[in-house]
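WARN  no MSA supplied for this record, continuing single-sequence
INFO  ligand: calcium ion
INFO  echoing inputs
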Amino acid sequence: MRPGPWITRTICLFAAAMGLAGAAEKKPNIILILADDLGYGDLGCYGAKVKTPQIDRLAEDGFRSTDCLVAANVCGPSRAALLTGRYPMRAGHPISRHPLPKYAAYGLAPEELTMAELLKSAGYATRMVGKWHLGFHVEGSHPLDAGFDDYLGLHSNYIKERPDAITLYHNRGVEKAGIAFEEVTKRYTDEVVDFIKGKHDEPFFIYFAHHIAHSPILPGAAFKGASGMKGRAGTYGDFVLELDDSVGRVRAAVEEAGISKDTLIVFLSDNGPARDGSAGPLRGGKYVTMEGGHRVPGIFFWPGRIPAGRVSDAMISSLDLLPLFAGAAGVELPKDRTLDGKNIIDLLAGTTDESPHQFFYYYNGLNLQAVRNERWKLHFPRDISDQPYWAKKGGGPRKPYLSLKQPLLFDLDDDRGEKKNVFARHPETAAGLTKQAERARKEIGDVNVVGSDQRPHGLVDPNEKE
Ligand SMILES: [Ca+2]
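INFO  complex generated
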């Protein structure tokens, strides 16, 4: 027999009170590990051929989401949303930037409030290690301008032809010019591990943004052959195992420091797989709004609060991390702006199995391409000219529906691979989603619509790269 509503409510209120008491007692350390272009199907615990023992163990000992979404299918806007808890359109960063003149003044808007700034206001030491990609050289958009006390990393993708893109920076200065890509992950991990093992008088927040598994696919010397597979798939497997090893080293450092119970570790990817990775059972990948572009591995480990062994299909997103971290740190959320994320601690802690979200909006650049209401996902008609530059060229199996004449409705509970269009069978569901899209469009915009709560991005011809 299910408990009556008043019993459920009493339990929830009691749990909420306990949660608040817990947060008041001790602010946890928070380690956010972000993989780059790692697909939904690239880890052992998500069905990959190559086992990833460290990340799989983190999932087994914590919470693993099978419905964790990111707010963009490419690096830059996904990171802007992750750090601010706001859709990229709302936060004024819907397009991924390049080291080209067009982007000289385009970075993470200084007026945006990041999770690092919030945690810093709650007394946290805040550090970032890794790839920034949000306008390192743009006035006001450097990691040190976004709430981080200390930064070590490459400011964007590793591109060996560009000296600035192979420079390891420490804060605003050069730590090492011309670093070999194969050294980078070890250097990053050493930095994070040394910091964790150091003395801490205050709680800390570390944002560790890997380059793996983005191109170049170049595993470090110690990982060559580790996957036991040959060819491109083997090299990619070795690369993912280097990431896995790094995650294992971070966790081991936390355990050795004796702070496991007081440390929340979150692992996720910034978008779906590019050429070499796998989206598992999902359709599409990086660059598109199919599930393969937006649904990523999402793992939460906090022995003090999150029970081990939970696997959940409740819809959550990278937008939820800022409210989650703020809640854990006992810091109030800002009241002067709209946040799109929700604190998911009750879901993670097991006091509910329900998602706090009803809707999710799939934007490709500026274009609202799909809306989801729990199990239902409606894709809207679009033309190639509506698409951002990264989607425009070279269609194929990973880029279906670059143009679309008629809407498509998928039932993700029954068809997460988005193959069976059930639009004709569910006209009322489709009509409801269409109305919801209208609301979103009015508020946060669309390719030819400026929303009422949208920070201007300032780019001329935003859909074009140059
Ligand atoms: Ca990426």
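The chain has two domains: 26-357, 360-444.
INFO  checksum written, moving to next record
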